[in-house]
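thread: overnight batch results

M.L. [08:02]
morning all. the overnight job finished for the chain we discussed friday. pasting input first so we're all looking at the same thing
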Amino acid sequence: MKPEKAVKKVADGRLFGVISICVLVLVLAAACATSPLGRKQLKLIPAVQMDAMGVQAFTQLKQATPVEPSPTLDAYVRCIALPLAELAEPGSQPTDWEVVVFKNAEPNAFALPGRKIGVHTGLLTVAKTDGELAAVLGHEVGHVLAGHGNERVSENLVVNLGLTATAELLSGPDGNKEGGNKGLLMAALGLGAQFGVLLPHSRDQETEADIIGLRLMARAGFDPQESVSLWRNMIRASGGRASPEFLSTHPASENRIARLEKAIPGVLDDYQAALRAGFPPKCGPR
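M.L. [08:03]
and the structure it wrote out:
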């Protein structure tokens, strides 16, 4: 490559990097939001687009995963899920929400933007009571209420843009960092973004969803103490195996239980008020 072309390539790359970083700063300033618990968030995706993505993903899941055929089990799960969903989104009607029980042995549940809730049959072997199932579903609805999906998509977009801009700033005439350490440096930056930004934020989201879910289940008349028994069941079901907290998107189970126990006294008034109002719903057999 001719020297003048090499210099121009470097200048163009660095200009792109500088412009990208400036755009990134402006985006971060314009997209700040606040979660229901007061935590600062980054949300770049319009809510209507997140809803469309949730509906599309749920449709694909129904095509790929067998649906539980038992109407009794379906009615049971809906009976617990819908009061939580309606509390999370006042003004919504039961018919606005789609709740599907998937025939899957993995103990899992999820809620998606667009008013979609999925429950695996395997979860019912771990969430043994109405209140324990309400704790899981309140947690999952809490993720949607707090816009955590939007936040995760937005954070990944920003991290990728930042890494791309940094790579351009570090590029030499041959596309490599001067000194030959660009790949190593970019790998370190990627790990830093993963463990320093994305994973801690995910753990913040999990903790936030726990507290939102605790509030929802209490307001729906489900005993908030059963959120603790649920996670103890989860520990037993996993055989006590867990990744170190700093490598996990979920808080360590014992830390999660401790936070829930600390938060329970703050929702007991709501729980007692719900009982006086005739909650929780009588959901019958599974």
